[in-house]
Structure formats: C-alpha cells, structure tokens
Amino acid sequence: MSVISSTKNPEALSFTLVAEFEAGVERVWELWADPRQLERWWGPPTWPATFEKLDLVPGGKANYYMTGPDGTKAHGWWEFTHVESPARLAFDDGFADEDGNPTGDMGITRATVTLEPLGDRTRMTVQSTFESEEQMEQMVQMGMQEGMTEAMGQIDAILAEHANA
Amino acid sequence: MVVDQLRETELDRLFQAFADSTRRDIVRRVTVTEYSVSGLAALYAMSFAAVQKHVAVLERASLVTKEKRGREQIVRGNHEGLQKARWLLDEYEQVWRQRAARIADILAEE
Fold this sequence. Notes:
The complex is a heterodimer.
Chain A: E1 3-9, E2 14-21, H1 25-33, H2 35-38, E3 49-54, E4 61-67, E5 73-84, E6 88-96, E7 109-118, E8 121-129, H3 133-143, H4 148-164
Antiparallel strand pairs in A: 1-2, 2-8, 3-4, 4-5, 5-6, 6-7, 7-8
Chain B: H1 2-8, H2 10-18, H3 21-32, E1 35-36, H4 37-41, H5 48-60, E2 64-69, E3 72-77, H6 79-109
Antiparallel strand pairs in B: 1-3, 2-3
Helix pairs in contact in B: 1-2, 2-5, 3-5
C-alpha cells in the first residue's frame, strides 16, 4: 500500500496525503519534472492530462488540459512558487481558457509537494489548499477514475435529501 | 445520465451560489450564528433588496434556510448542504489515492 495517511480539514478546505514509493527521490522527482511522465499519472485514463508546457523553475508556468470521455477539454495552469530539486516543489493551480489564460473565476489551489528519502525508498507528502468548494468539485470531477457514477449518485442523494427536508 | 442532469440543475445552483464573494461571506457568517436579512444588509455596501436576492440564491442551492420571525427574516446555515465540503474532500482524497497508485504502478514497471 503506497498511501500512508491522508488528512482532511473541511473548515480550511485543505487536504494532505502521505505516500511511500519503491524508488529513490531522484526517480520520483522525474515523475513531476518530465511532462511525458507526469501525463502518465496526473489524469485518470478517463480524463487523461496533456501538458503543453512545463517550466519547472521558480516562477515558471505549466499549461495543461484534461480530455473527458465525451471529448470535452478542461484547461488548467500551474505557476511554480518553489522549486528545490529533488526535495520540494510548490505551485498554484487554476483553471484556464482554451488559450491557457487563467480564468480566475473559481480561485486557485495551492499545492506543496515534499519528497524525503527513506533509504532507497521515497516518502511523498502532497498538501492542497482550495479557495472554494466549487473549485474542489471541478477538481474532483476531473480527477476521478473510478466510482464517478456512484459518486454522482451520492451527490444526487444528498441534494434530494435537501429538496425533501 | 445522472451527471448531465445534475450539471443542469442542482450543481448549477450550487456553483452559482458559490460564485459570488458576498454570498460566500454570507454562508460563512450564518454557519456560525443566525442573522436577520436586515442584519446582513447592514454589513455590506448594498441595498436590502440586493442582499435579499443573494439570500434567495443561497436558499435555492440549499446552503441556507430562511424563516420568518415576527417582522424579521432569519437566515441560518443549512448543515446538510455544508456537509458537501466534507464529502468533496473525501472524493479529492480518492483522486490522490488513485494518483499515488498510478505512480506506484509506473515505478513497479521499471
């Protein structure tokens, strides 16, 4: 099991995940630094990600889009606020229009990634902080691989409860 | 399909409700303690009618409830609606668990 722990803070709209991998920090860093490798895991098979640009330097930007099952493209941008190879990176993540320009209407997610060596293994800690629930919702829709229909059914049930309450 | 129907109805209402900073502020306040509509109107540089409209949008999205008490309309946070934030974090956790699993798969191939 690669995931060690996860912590959710609904009041602060923040989330932390700790995972350990059977590889050194240099190798795990490559999975973030090389856009072709990043594409292999960032999006689920149903919403694969394509990184058009990835400039992994402080102040550098990334542009990407995720393609949904019906061909819908959801565009996003990153801006790296901290880059310390191969130990730590931080970036702001937001939604963009088709040309990759930030739309800004749903706020940004601040993400911090820390890689620590554990012998020849790596501990990765990811912390995400959201600005709004709607943004979380969109992220969830774009990031989900399995159980999406089930998940949507859950929303349906919650909303139906409200309607009847 | 469920997702499409949701998009056009309840989710749209929810998105619309959260899309405005005054409405987000109202939600934060009434979650902590109840407010009258006139009490809320006193907080913002806008008319009573404008605040009343914001409250109506939040009410339609099931994020707040409104109740008449004498001459006042009392606004409160709708607890179930706000549970959604917790639910969304649960879902987001799954997103990252799946990403971690894909990373582990890639590394295992080598």
